[in-house]
Write a structure and sequence with these properties.
The chain is 38% helix and 16% strand. The protein is of the alpha/beta class and 349 residues long. The protein has eleven helices and eight strands. α2 runs antiparallel to α5, α3 packs across α5 and α5 packs parallel to α7. It is globular.
């Protein structure tokens, strides 16, 4: 059951007051800000660089491209034109969709479900337990394959909306160090601390992953595992290490394509490592308005549609094990339109 009525998209696009969200600007403003940042570093003709990068993405993200053993080389994100095309096409939609799913996982009316298709799994008590456990401490997050870190914006908005105003630390682990400058700009916009680690999930020394998982409150894999499907054996080795070494009581946030087998792959490995699912949406067909995804002048210039339709799977896993204490029922929430927990000053309570 969802207790709150406002959606994440309404928050981000209409810019609600400072008590509800951590920035006054909407997601189009953030997207335009990052686009302009990348464009300012491109030496050649921007439109030419954009379309060359877009052509790489068009091929690399096909089923054929992703299935090739050398698919990781089909999209060169070290090229600024490719970064520009990716940000323009995917950044805003990833922020908005992940934000809606996160809010829905903790009880906000983020996703507009039809009555016949509720979440497959939803344990609000466990999610509220987790939120309460981190509400008075510095929160540490690792994002694997962070790229332009759209998940940093979504996670920050979610945590701030839940009333967590303690400092947020994000570790971004990605094989492409070229994304680090973009990530730093997103972090500056969101007012969070961010550290960027260049590390290849497939080939790294396994112990190099430990600092990025053992003490984290949240580990996030957004559109990450689907890029490794052609390298499943090597990826499984590192994935198992991450899952085994996350602390008890931490959560793993996963969002990826709803097809391709990556959701089942992760679910099997997570179960082996003593995780259980607290929120599951196996198939969410997101449909967004192009007007909220990119600035109008860039839509006219590039003449390419930003991605407004995505079919994703979303899961939140909670790590059990030593130190985990089930049975916490969480905190109830006010049913009014305002974001706060029962007990705060509100005539609706």
């Amino acid at each position: 059951q969802h207790y709150k009525s406002i959606t994440f998209i309404e928050i981000m696009v209409n810019s609600y007051n400072d008590n509800n969200i951590f920035w006054k600007n909407d997601v189009v403003t953030l997207t335009g800000y990052i686009i302009k940042f990348v464009e300012n570093h491109i030496d050649g003709p921007i439109l030419k660089e954009f379309h060359q990068g877009n052509d790489q993405i068009n091929y690399g993200y096909t089923d054929k491209g992703l299935g090739l053993s050398n698919s990781k080389d089909k999209i060169n994100f070290s090229e600024l034109g490719t970064q520009l095309a990716y940000i323009y096409r995917f950044f805003a939609s990833h922020v908005l969709i992940m934000g809606e799913l996160l809010l829905s996982s903790s009880g906000w009316a983020g996703i507009r479900y039809s009555p016949s298709k509720p979440p497959l799994t939803q344990n609000l008590g466990e999610m509220n337990r987790f939120i309460d456990s981190i509400s008075s401490q510095h929160v540490a997050v690792t994002c694997f394959g962070g790229g332009p870190v759209s998940e940093v914006a979504a996670l920050t908005a979610w945590l701030r909306t839940e009333g967590i105003y303690e400092p947020l630390l994000f570790n971004i682990v990605d094989k492409y160090s070229a994304w680090s400058c973009v990530a730093a700009e997103v972090a500056r916009f969101c007012n969070v601390e961010l550290h960027y680690k260049e590390l290849d999930f497939l080939t790294t020394q396994i112990d190099d992953l430990l600092p990025y998982v053992s003490t984290m409150d949240i580990v996030c894999m957004s559109k990450f595992l689907s890029a490794l499907t052609a390298h499943r054996e090597a990826a499984t080795r590192s994935l198992r290490y991450v899952l085994q070494n996350m602390r008890a009581g931490a959560i793993l946030v996963y969002v990826d394509n709803s097809g391709g087998g990556t959701t089942q792959w992760l679910s099997v490995e997570a179960a082996k490592a003593d995780f259980h699912e607290v929120f599951t949406v196996p198939h969410y067909p997101a449909r967004l308005s192009p007007a909220i995804l990119a600035p109008n002048e860039r839509r006219s210039l590039f003449n390419v549609k930003a991605t407004s339709t995505l079919n994703v799977a979303f899961k939140v896993f909670l790590k059990k094990g030593r130190g985990y204490s089930p049975g916490f029922t969480g905190t109830s929430y006010c049913r009014s339109k305002f974001y706060h927990r029962i007990g705060d000053s509100c005539t609706s309570c």
